[in-house]
Amino acid sequence: MTAGEKAADSEHPDAADLPLLLVIDDDRFFQAQVTALLQERYRIHQRFNAVDDLSEVLAMADTVMLDLNMPGVDGVSFITELAALEHPPKLLIVSGCDSTVLELARQTALLQGLRRTGVLRKPLTRQKLLEATRSLDELSADPTFIGAPVGVVFTESDVIDAARAGELAILYQPQICLDTREVTGVEALVRWDHPSLGRLSPAMFIEAIEASEHAEEFTLAIAKQALLDMVRLAEAGVFHGRISVNVPPKVLESASFTDHLMALITAAQFPPERFQCEVTERGIENPSPAVSATLARLRMRGIQLAIDDFGIGQSGLSKLKSQAFDELKIDQSFIKDLANSAGSRSIVESVVHLANLVGIRVIAEGIENRGTLEVSASIGVPHAQGYHFARPMNVADLDAWLFSWQAKQLLDGPGGVT
Ligand code: C2E
Ligand code: MG
Ligand code: MG
Questions:
Q1: CA 251 to ligand 1: nearest atom
Q2: CATH assignment of 15-138?
Q3: What is the pTM of this model?
Q4: Is the CB–ligand 1 distance for residue 118 below 6 Å?
Q5: Every domain of the chain and the residues it spans
Q6: Is 337 touching ligand 1 by the criterion CB < 6 Å?
């Protein structure tokens, strides 16, 4: 530790019991702000650079707050060092750069296996800091959260074996109408309950299966389970909304997919108009005749179609013109920085406006906090999905969540978004 650096634990009587927060930032004013705001919750250790050997303090750290832009230090290399630790701490990347740079740094950390990574954009405000640390806390408490074991690569047959062995779990995330606060739909999101590694995120295995010849079987297995769960919730009288299932582009190339899906929907006696296929914008940028044919068949059967992750592909607004889609899901990268980025705000406003003109439903993905929700509502975003309302959960938890959500709406009365 060099002169001027200190562990701020001496300033708090019960500091020894608190988790250790290592703040690496050459900005002394920032260090002072963080200490003032967080010393009740953390034992704070300050470092003004990442040049010295930090291994001792890193071994004890619960969370590292890292400034990307310190003189003489490459913040990105430091992220790689953190990822190599046996038990990496949570990471909060801090920078005064624009949100694109922060998002790239976050992606870099995630790709290296640092799943518990958040970002914080300077200048600091009390609310931003508290929200960022709270979302990191939630991440580690989230039972569905999975750290990616570095170097493990799954093949399509691993995944299909898992599906056949009943190791796939489906979680559901609610979608809310901001006007009525009604839960209009839920999205099915898959997890793999791996026998030795624990619960795995789709990021670890979905690519292997999506591009394979088993993609259709996999998608139909998800659809079948989701239909069973939705029928049970409808019979219990708790949910009569839409179920959305993610369908990879490869599956849309299959001439038999629509018939197979319809067979499941019919067997479940489920109304087709309550079933929605989510197709990523990237997957339909240049649709082949086979893909266009499947989209047409699905629509003819009354199944709903949504464009997922809208905004990050190249198709632009031209897809709206075709009117093949019922719903457009604005990608979370635009939603996350709505409150701070005039650019994102203008994009979202224009998309909402145009989608309204052509009669397509719009939903914002990635509503993580009240601030983002309020900005979204103020610019007319009609539907929302995100951690602020609920994380993806299993069907039993969804049942309980729907019950308490409905009870809360009754108590709160009509109107407003919370
Ligand atoms: P997606 O379809 O865009 O799903 C939304 C993702 O955003 C989900 O991640 C969800 O947990 C996450 N999310 C929801 N709200 C928030 C929020 O407020 N903040 C943040 N940071 N994230 C939020 P998940 O479950 O990890 O799924 C990732 C992607 O994997 C999905 O993106 C989808 O493309 C793919 N996927 C998931 N399940 C399936 C599946 O059954 N089949 C296929 N083909 N792909 C799937
Ligand atoms: Mg989706
Ligand atoms: Mg999406």
A1: 44
A2: 3.40.50.2300
A3: 0.72
A4: no
A5: 15-138, 156-412
A6: no
